[in-house]
Amino acid sequence: MKKSCFLLSFVFLICFSNLTVQAQKSEAFTHKVKEEDVAATLKYLSSDELEGRETGTAGIEKAAVFLELFLKNNNIKPYFTSYRDTLSNFDAPAYNIVGFLEGTDPVLKNEFVVLSAHYDHIGLEKNKQGDLINNGANDDASGVTAVAEMAKYFSQTKSNKRSILFAFFAGEEKGLLGSKSLVQKLKAKNFNLYAQLNIEMIGVPMKRDYLAYITGFDKSNMAGKINEYTGKKTIGFLPKEAEYELFYRSDNFSFYDVFKKPCQSISTFDFENFEFYHHVSDDFKAMDIPHMTHFIQELLPAITQMATTPTEEITMTK
């Protein structure tokens, strides 16, 4: 009798766990990312008003205010005493914008998933006539927009058992300064990082049989796990990424360098589909809003699973 009760309890537990996972996937798939919301955020962040968002300027200050208000309106709390995290390695006032959504599980909430993008760009052209503003729509207002939509999704669904840190970095274009500054503060707080997913330049689609590529493809099993979670060939291997060692050239590396956990960037810029890198023509009208919306929508089930699996399924491989 005791053995039968144990078996029934075990079967019930498995069924309940499966139902929970299916409910989480269903929630992610039924949540609809709206093109008009994606367009509105991207359009403002890449507008002339922000003058290219160079770190330490009045333009990036406007972007900071916008992101603070976005997080507040979506009930994402500040991680520190305010949303502003002052850079410790820049000679003028400059800020990361950092929000925090506590996990719903009493144990897993002590682990963190970090979703991030850099909101700075290179500012104004010097000694040039005509268009002087490097609006940085693809680099990286597109990534910021994606992370903002992900923050909105989790604030509405409360589907994260792990806690999530939403980080918008300044100083990336100055040498990853914002992320380098933040990781030192997190390390001092004994921050328990599970994984970081950094979004970098997703404003235009690739002509490939996968949606996006990941930097440091073979350093962890993150690519395979994302594809498993989405049920699609979402992430593929881009040889140019390995050739140019992009893993070391974006804010994911600052986190990997300190925490030695899976910390990688996802991008759809493949060196063939966009010719305006660090160019004044990297502006809103060059962006593909339906593609960006689709990208965010397809990633939601994967990120939901990252934030809810009972064990740490994403691990380093080398």
TrEMBL record:
One of its GO terms (biological process) is proteolysis. One of its GO terms (molecular function) is metalloexopeptidase activity. Residues 1-23 form the signal peptide. Keywords: Signal. Gene3D superfamilies: Zn peptidases. Residues 96-297 form the Peptidase M28 domain. PANTHER family: METALLOPEPTIDASE M28 FAMILY MEMBER, PEPTIDASE M28 DOMAIN-CONTAINING PROTEIN. This is M20/M25/M40 family metallo-hydrolase. It comes from Flavobacterium flavipigmentatum. The lineage of its organism: Bacteria, Pseudomonadati, Bacteroidota, Flavobacteriia, Flavobacteriales.
